[in-house]
Amino acid sequence: MQEEDASDGELLERMVSGDGEAFAALYRRRQAGVYRFALQMSGSEALAEDVVQEVFLTLVRAGATYDPACGPVTAFLFGIARNHVRRGIGRGRHGGAESARELLAADQPETDLVRRETIASVRAAVLALPVRYREAVVLCDLEEMDCREAAEILGCAVGTVKSRLHRARRMLAGRLLPAGAAPAVSRAIRPARCVP
Amino acid sequence: MNCGEFEALVGDLARGRGPEESARRAATAHARECAGCASRLVEERELAGLLGLFAAGVAGQSAPPRVEAALLDAFRRRHALPSMRRHWLVLPRWAFVAAAVALVMAAALFVRPRPIIAPPLVAKRPVVAPVPVAVAAESPAPPAAPRAVQARRRRPPERQVAATQFYPLTSVDAGARIQGGTIVRIGMPPRALASFGWPLDPDDPGGAVEAEVVLDGDTGMARAIRFVGRRP
């Protein structure tokens, strides 16, 4: 079977039995998402690189423990990544707004100054969110997963993800949007109560 | 639709996903009538635009190639191990048996009493016939002394005694060689020498005569004796 046609679960199964090509295919398919998730969560390229390495090393060591009944392979991978990101952030391994600005400037020299400044502001606002809200924003708004997928990764109910996402968006709007709009609306809205 | 219901849908509505068509139409109609909810929809669309800009900024990023190389190397090493482990698991089964057999054989070699290669015993006369004593000190030295004899020669002077040759003790199978046996050292009264045809010395100071007796390894019977000295 061609690696391109195989599902994540099939690749993982072949990988566990020692198929290096399957492992390489699974890595190439999923590493970018894991890397971006770690980068957007931490703002640190070094941590993101480490997280990718740890996630797939864990897959090499403990891929046989994956249980399809517990969710898709992506949830398994992002769940591992999430643990490593949280650990890295807890140890102070995260970049700030300055590192985000430098990162964008280095990667996209053609980007105009205003655009770069805007992206850096959004990045800084995302990084300023509490981790549990940041996870919801990164998964649902940046990686464009639906709430069900995010809930599988975060290990919580879909309603919890929606609640955290709503709360996070409100925080971001308060930081990023002109002062007039958000407070007027926020008075009319009772913020959802999120369980940490 | 009221404002609460609108708020639950506004995020997905601003991003163009989620609500069904009927819910979308109802939310849009509510935003047309409610200024606050209309403002909220605008705000949410702006925020979605900003987040989209940010997401696009990192869309092409991925882990550097060195990570893939390191992981593939780790994978190869990981899956090279089981075959080695299999060999380790198989080897001991016979290796332990072979080692155990070798240990038993080695133990048997080292623990077992060293067989005595006794000189050929040929009975030329009846057992009790007197035989002239050939004192070892007076007889010519053997061309190659056995190790046991060499060790005996290194003993302290008081233990060095003149030994006679071996005398057969039985005529049964007298022509047969002893294939193996044990030498035991005994003490016997001097008068017992008389049974071997030796003359008794009336001035004998007493004590015991030391002798070495060859015991047949198969039957345990005494086959030969020699006298090696006196015990005070």
State the main characteristics:
heterodimer; A: 196 residues; mainly alpha; Rna Polymerase Sigma Factor, Chain: A; Arc Repressor Mutant, subunit A; 0% strand; B: 232 residues; alpha+beta; 3 domains; four-stranded antiparallel beta sheet; 5 helices
Number of domains of chain B: 3
Mean pLDDT of chain B: 72
Q: What is the residue-mean pLDDT of chain A, rounded to a whole number?
A: 82
> What shape does the CA trace of chain A take?
globular
Structural domain tally of chain A: 2
Query: Got a strand count of chain B?
Result: 4
End-to-end Cα distance of chain B: 129 Å
Q: Look at the helices and sheets of chain A and give the structural class.
A: mainly alpha
Task: Give the amount of beta strand of chain B, in percent.
Answer: 5-15%
Distance between the termini of chain A: 44 Å
Q: pLDDT below 50 for ≥5 consecutive residues: which ranges of chain B?
A: 120-142, 156-161
- Low-confidence blocks of residues of chain A: 182-196
Give the quaternary arrangement of the chains.
heterodimer
Indicate the overall shape of chain B.
rod-shaped
For the secondary structure, the number of strands of chain A is 0
Major beta sheet of chain A, specifics?
none
What is the number of helical segments of chain A per DSSP (H or I, 4+ residues)? Answer: 10
